[in-house]
Amino acid sequence: MDSGHATGLSTLLGDASRVLTQPQAVKQLSRDFYWYSPVLRRQLDGKVGDLVVQPVNAAEIQAILRYCNAHEIPVTARGAGTGNYGQAVPLHGGVVLDLARMDQVEQILPDGVAVCEPGVRLGTLENEARKLGWELRCYPSTIMKASVGGFLGGGSGGVGSVAHGNLRDFQTVRALEVVTMEAEPRVVLHEGEAVHDILHAWGTNGIVTRIWLTLTPAVEWSQCAIAFDQFEAAFDFSERIAGDPRWTKRLVTPFEWPIPSFFTPVKECVSHGKALIFFLIAETQCAELETVARKQGGEITYSGRYLGLRTRPLLSDYTWNHTTLWAMRCNEAYTYLQCAFDPVTVRDQMRQLKERFGNEFLFHMEFWKSGDGRMIPGAIPVVYYRTEERLNDMISFCREVGVFVANPHVNNVEGGGRYRADNVQLLAKQRYDPKGLLNPGKMITFKAGELAR
Ligand code: FAD
Three-class SS of residue 417? Predict the structure, then answer.
């Protein structure tokens, strides 16, 4: 990219301090957590943008995109860079659009809808919402760092999904505004079903500049850890609590041994050799949950009030994709998959996977409610990486036995498995980014100048 563009963009913003060109800063802001995957590590190491631009409002984004469109410069949006698929890693250099300065919670409406800018950290929004009696419906375990815009662009669900589904469900994203990458960029409002044009499109078809996010009434929570001798018993108990609407829960996460042994900072919550479940459960139901668990042979290894995101220990720090992080800290040969088991045949599916892969495939389940109300035994299994071929063998075998896999070892929207069959994300890209300049290379079904069918 021509070095004169740094000057061009600085002039545009009237503030050179928000155009970063120092190689170390640009490198840092071109990375995310793709290195969780040994496959992506090989593909993406060394990929960097040419410079970073830090807008503070939608009008500036329009000006930046107008400039980049005219000069055919790629633009990759960045929230906090905690994505796992190399979503925010620019494949073809250009501008990294760092949205961290657009961090205003504009309003929390009386009906529990937060209106905010994309760079707001989810943890900030959760704290602000709780002051007013609301909380997030679902959030990734990276809540402290991750941004709202990045969650919409690249995330799917997390803590809370057991009760409220994923980000795409139950109109959790009420509306959003995007800036288009046209010769004359527009600000376009997407409401209702139309939010799906943009959700989980990895910033390939518009830059989200304002979000209307549905919250849920806040609950006083307790954290609780329960150990069982066998994983099967832990799974049965988790499934029972997750699936029974009488229990008010935010997290139901069973782990197979030896996964709990990776959680070194919370050794006190772990019972050697046993499977473990981490719960966030309504404070008013915690004692009852513990009584029921004991009757089923469970051992309560930890129980305490949840006092917000600063609570220590914070059990959610060991769940969702944080589990993989703890495994990798113990042995860097571990990596992960993202799966959804069949609620009816899950036990048979787990048995077949165990028979085939033994301890190369360790169960870490995360329950979530699907859009049609079913309780899905989701999973982020910790898997031992030997070769890419063996990893692909695991993915193929999962699919053979009916386990859905969103492959986290590919670097495109389609391969990640959360692409929509109705093609709405691709259609939006055709409309909003006809030259293919937004995060190029990440939506592989897109061809410049070709209309989607
Ligand atoms: P980024 O990584 O910066 O961006 C993600 C994608 O969105 C990129 O493609 C980027 O280009 C695009 N984007 C960013 N901002 C915008 C914008 N304003 N407009 C358009 N596109 C934009 N994810 C989950 O869903 N659930 C989990 O529980 C979870 N747990 C995780 C645990 C760990 C330890 C790690 C490392 C990751 C985890 N993730 C999880 C992935 C990630 O943390 C979340 O998806 C997070 O919400 C991403 O937010 P971010 O601000 O870091 O986004």
Answer: coil
CA distance 143 to 126: 9
The CA 431 to ligand 1 mean position distance, Å, reads: 24
Q: Judge if pTM exceeds 0.90.
A: yes
pLDDT in tens, 120-132: 999 999 999 999 9
Ligand 1 atom nearest the C-alpha of 203 is 21
**CA 145 – ligand 1 centroid, Å:** 10
Dihedral (CA of 73, 74, 75, 81) sign: negative
Among left, alpha and beta (phi > 0; psi -120 to 50; other), residue 206 is left
pLDDT digits (tens, 9 = 90+) for 315-347: 999 999 999 999 999 999 999 999 999 999 999
Q: What are phi and psi of 351, to 5 degrees?
A: -60, -45
Ligand 1 centroid distance, CA of 138 (Å): 13
Query: What is d(CA 140, CA 251) in angstroms, rounded to the nearest whole number?
Result: 11
Residues 6+ apart with CB under 8 A from 427: 197, 452
Residue type at position 265: P
Tell me how far apart the alpha carbons of residues 303 and 322 are, in angstroms, rounded to a whole number.
Answer: 20
Ligand 1 nearest atom to the CA of residue 32, by list position = 2
Q: Which of 82, 96, 161 to mutate for ligand 1's pocket (most ligand atoms within 8 Å of CB)?
A: 82
**Interval between CA 99 and ligand 1 midpoint (Å):** 13
Closest protein CA for atom 26 of ligand 1: 140
DSSP 262: G
Decide if pLDDT at 411 tops 70: yes
Rounded to the nearest angstrom, the distance between the alpha carbon of 375 and the centre of ligand 1 is 24
Residue ID of nearest Cα to ligand 1 atom 32: 321
